[in-house]
């Protein structure tokens, strides 16, 4: 079993879709073992997306991620990192497979409903940014 880090992004909370997204996550066999609703500060968002700081969309991304509350989550299951990437679908919803969260709910490449870690190593780093061990059960 493995853990990954997930964010239900502002476009999900704004449209009251957190339960609908969680239903897809759970139907895919992933267990939500940590979950909290937060409003990210600019500093938190800039740190979280630090790897993208030279990309042209960085400013827009930080503005979006701090626009409304998000739900940060720890997901657990077999091959959770790869499994969740599969369930999320392609970054650009126009390229996402049928049945994926981004195909079902996302509106654009920027406002794409969910984040999921891209490796087990990054999952551990990202989980530690938002959760203590006692909050994962
Ligand atoms: P995430 O890291 O959020 O799980 P991802 O790994 O599919 O998504 P990345 O390439 O890591 O995609 O990009 C991080 C995020 O930056 C994307 O989810 C999206 O919100 C935003 N983003 C990526 N490309 C663009 C773009 N061309 N224009 C606007 N925003 C973008
Ligand atoms: Mg990414």
Bound molecules: adenosine-5'-triphosphate, magnesium ion
Shape: globular
Helix/strand structural class: alpha+beta
Strand elements, count: 4
Q: What gyration radius follows from the Cα positions, in whole Å?
A: 14 Å
Strand arrangement, major sheet: 2-3-1-4
Subunit structure: Homotetramer.
Main location: cytoplasm
Protein name: Nucleoside diphosphate kinase
Family: Belongs to the NDK family.
Protein model, in words:
This protein is of the alpha+beta class and 137 residues long. It is built from seven helices and four strands, in the order βααβααβααβα. It has helices at residues 10-14, 18-27, 42-48, 58-65, 80-88, 101-105, 120-130, and strands spanning 2-8, 31-38, 70-77, 114-116. A four-stranded antiparallel sheet has the order 2-3-1-4. The longest helix has 11 residues, at 120-130. The radius of gyration is 14 Å and the shape is globular. The structure holds adenosine-5'-triphosphate and magnesium ion (MG). Adenosine-5'-triphosphate binds next to helix 4 and strand 4. The active site is at 115 (pros-phosphohistidine intermediate). Belongs to the NDK family. Its EC number is 2.7.4.6.
């Amino acid at each position: 079993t493995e853990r990954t880090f997930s964010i239900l992004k502002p476009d999900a909370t704004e449209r009251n879709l957190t339960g609908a997204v969680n239903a897809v996550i759970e139907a895919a066999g992933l267990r939500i073992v940590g979950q909290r609703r937060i409003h990210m500060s600019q500093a938190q968002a800039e740190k979280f997306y630090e790897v993208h700081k030279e990309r042209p969309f960085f400013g827009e991304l930080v503005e979006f991620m701090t626009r409304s509350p998000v739900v940060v989550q720890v997901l657990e299951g077999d091959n959770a990192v790869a499994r969740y990437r599969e369930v999320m679908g392609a970054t650009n919803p126009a390229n996402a497979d049928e049945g994926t969260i981004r195909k079902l709910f996302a509106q654009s490449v920027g406002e794409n409903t969910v984040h999921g870690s891209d490796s087990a190593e990054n999952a551990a780093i990202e989980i530690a940014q938002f959760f203590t061990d006692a909050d994962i059960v």
